[in-house]
Amino acid sequence: MLNSDPIKKNSPSLSFEIVYAGRSRELQIRAVRSGDLSDFDGQIHESANEYLLVGKPNAANANAVRMHLPWLKPKPLGLNLSAGVGDRLGLATSGHARAFTKYGKGILPIFVQQSAREMERLFRTPQEVMDDATFGLIESSWMNQFGSDADHLKTIADIDTALAAGFTMFTLDPGDSVAVVPPNFDGNLNHLPWGELEDTEESMILRYKDKQFNIGEISISMNNEEIRRAAYKYSSAVACVVSMYRHLMQTATHEVEVEIAIDETSEVTTMGEHIFIATELKRLGVKWISFAPRYIDGFEKGIEFKGNLGELSVNLKGHFAIAEALGPYKLSIHSGSDKFDIYSMAHDICGGLVHLKTSGTSYLEALSICAQFAPDLFREIYQMSVDSYAKARSSYQVSANLKNAPSAATLSDTELIGLITSDDTRQILHVGYGDALTLRDSSGNFALLAALQMCLIENKEDYDQAMEAHIGKHLALFG
Ligand SMILES: [Zn+2]
């Protein structure tokens, strides 16, 4: 498949395109002088009036492309309205870019986005995530600003590999350090890391005691017990963010920005807790552009919002009032895939100071192509996902019941697509990617992943069209 309008370099001496030749993806670069191709790795073919380099989409070529086409390096997006799209398979970016071009007016995209957990499960590196997006952006002739999100980072090592790969947004997730307040909590806070917090119990209490936080239309005060519970629960998490943040700022050699995410903790974040976390992080010098609390329940993976929309509206208004008063920073909506009922409401409440994060829904679009064009492969992926669901579900907000997951062997080819559209099996497919995509064949290769990627390459236009329409449906409502 040839692009009608290959990306040109600023100087017109080089033009770049991604070409699908049979079952492989190639980088092709045309030049008038062979010397202009010296930064790239591949075979050079000479014809009457040009030189054509045919190379692999590898890390060296991705890096050289970004040097020659600097707009393909991600940049911080600041407080602008933004939406992130994840890509587990390395082939989604061209479809994502088409969606933003057609439906994403006024929304800055994050094309490069994957969580540390997903990368670990898929044996993928931040560099591979970055490079796959680079090639997808050449394919779609993308020439505008975009961001990159190293999502749900929990360790210093996660930060270092993402920095080295050129990521610009770092979502710091201190969720493992959030403590659960015991039922017999007596208010004792002696064990908190006061040294790291550069604080004492007395001065912490004084910051909140007898204070009325009048924020927009809401007014919040915390009694002694509430203050102590918030400190018990979040102080170690605050210290964790501070140490990750300081490391990031000391190490980064390019411009970076930070999101704080506590959406994957076990309890809903109260308004008082949001105030506590933001106040403490600010006191310790942390700056961030977006914050993901755990909103009220209803944010399950890959399906429509299941909670009460009126309650969500009140919840978003409260969190946004705090974000505006103590920042401003954007509210970040994680698990944002397929929540069509909430996008315009979230945009309106936050006045555009909001970030939407989606990921798994793009994988499900890939599976819909697989179900249409490679039904037996889809059956295998589905079965692996069913078998691994009991284990895979533990790290996600899902409610799918295995009783509602029929055996794929009993379904005709045309019925398979129903497994992607029905909520239970959609969630099972959504969270079951880890075991399915990393199943090794006798040579140690990821057999199902490779077969799925082949299927997408062979049906690339259908895949791009499906992605454009599906992500476009999100963007049209969100923008
Ligand atoms: Zn999240």
Describe this structure in words.
The protein is an alpha/beta fold. The protein has 3 domains: 7-70, no CATH class; 73-180 and 206-360, Aldolase class I (TIM Barrel, Alpha-Beta Barrel), CATH 3.20.20.70; 363-475, no CATH class. It is 43% helix and 15% strand. It contains 17 helices and 15 strands. The protein has helices at residues 59-68, 93-103, 116-122, 126-139, 156-164, 201-208, 224-251, 271-283, 309-326, 343-350, 360-373, 375-392, 417-421, 423-431, 433-437, 447-458, 460-478, and strands spanning 7-8, 14-21, 24-31, 43-46, 51-55, 82-85, 108-115, 147-153, 169-172, 213-215, 218-220, 257-261, 290-292, 330-333, 354-358. The strands form 3 sheets. An 8-stranded parallel beta barrel has the order 6-7-8-9-12-13-14-15, surrounded by 9 helices. It has a 5-stranded antiparallel beta sheet with strand order 1-2-3-5-4. The longest helix is centred in the middle third of the chain and has 28 residues, at 224-251. The protein is globular, with a radius of gyration of 24 Å.
